[in-house]
Amino acid sequence: MTFSRIGQLLSGPSGIQELMDDLGAAMTSHPDMRMLGGGQPAAIPEVQALWRRQMHALVEDGPVLDRMLLNYDPPSGNPQFREAFASFLKRECGWEVTRENICVLPSSQAAFFLLFNLLAGDSPSGKKRILCPLVPEYIGYANQGLSEEHFAACLPQIEEHGPHEIKYRVDFDRLRSAITPDIAAMAVSCPTNPTGNVLTPEEFTRLRDLARARGIPLIVDNAYGHPFPDVLYTGFHPHWEEGMIFSISMSKVGLPGVRNAMIVASPQIVKALSNMNAILALANPNLGQTLLTPLLADDTLPRLSREVIRPFYKARSDFAAEVLTNSLGDRTRWALHAREGAFFLWLWLKDLRITSAELYQRLKERSVLVIPGHYFSFGLKEPWAHASQCLRITFSQPHQIVQDGLEILAEEAVRASQ
User: Fold this and answer.
1) DSSP 189
2) Strand order in the sheet with 390-394
3) Quick check: helix, strand or coil at residue 335?
């Protein structure tokens, strides 16, 4: 069978497909696998208890349950949910939005696929691209374009904060040169998946001003950020303004199974995404919107994020960093990216004599699953050796799994650096 060009692009191997296949295989065929690779949220008792209460109340309310199960909502999302979400954002974040600025879509992954292909690709004025101003960037973007060379990217400035910590910063000299007439939008995750990097207020303002000056949208992926789950440790919350596109996910607040995301954008973008969603999915899953709507009337979600979710992941991050520090010690040269948010450690093994992809395979043979760094450096004009010395490590699993996995990782990393 011969597939179309688009069929070949979407059905071929990809980093996100390998990640999800490995996660699925590990959960079903390898129950002893130490899962340090995915972005799955942890089972936090207080968060699970909230969703159980919401589900119980939903089941007890027959008319609401019936409506949720028996109705298609408009492709832009349930009107009552969109109204409630806009009011929530205005109250909690100070964003000047209405229902017309909100589009609900079936997951952030689907939302970015639609956005990237709405804005970039073949157009009446020529081929357009999406520019990532700071790589490493999210693995799930890399294969979403329906045209060749759909993405462009800029290498970061690497600041070394002592022997064992680095921070990536936007290289604005490089970025200004990269915003050529074929750039349709800039896209950045904050906190960044995979590194946990958080833009500084100055970087965010300069990105906004550059986008405005070039007349292109700035897209900000808030999957791990503001207003929930708010796993941010620097105190900075990016602020939506006209001309920007923000994505907010239900997944990391403990609802990855409901597959809902909210896009905050201009009414023109919202209408276009709604029309595309009607073709792609007809309507959105109703469960997540129904669960969240009553919680948008008060501060339940921001308070849960501040008081439960953020401290939980900060403690897990501190624990994982301590285990890795003790395990690696001075046996090889290494550094972690500054831990500013999200669910990951980003480890740079400076003396690695094999690629991180080969190290990934060695670790998988020892029942430790991580993600090699090269998947996160797409859109570059040439290979970046630094990325192949890096690993993304998730620390949301229970302490013993994280400790065992990191100790094995340290053993293999030292062996692969000698």
Assistant:
1) E
2) 157-160, 165-169, 334-337, 344-349, 390-394, 371-372
3) strand
Global pTM value: 0.95
Phi, psi (5° rounding) for residue 41? -65, 155
Q: Helix 310-328 to helix 399-415 angle, to the nearest 10 degrees?
A: 30
Cα distances from 408 to residues 36, 315, 348, 368, in angstroms, run: 12, 21, 16, 8
Helix/strand/coil for 177: helix
Strands 165-169 and 157-160, sheet pairing:
antiparallel
Strands, DSSP E only, in 31-125?
Answer: 34-35, 102-105, 121-123
Separation CA 90–CA 104 (nearest Å): 17
pLDDT tens for the chain, 418 residues long, are 899 988 888 887 777 787 677 767 766 667 788 999 888 899 999 999 999 999 999 999 999 999 999 999 999 999 999 999 999 999 999 999 999 999 999 999 999 999 999 999 999 989 999 999 999 999 999 999 998 899 999 999 999 998 999 999 999 999 999 999 999 999 999 999 999 999 999 999 999 999 999 999 999 999 999 999 999 999 999 999 999 999 999 999 999 999 999 999 999 999 999 999 999 999 999 999 999 999 999 999 999 999 999 999 999 999 999 999 999 999 999 999 999 999 999 999 999 999 999 999 999 999 999 999 999 999 998 889 999 999 999 999 999 999 999 999 999 999 999 8
Please name which of 401, 313, 305, 287 lies closest in space to residue 36, comparing C-alpha atoms. 401
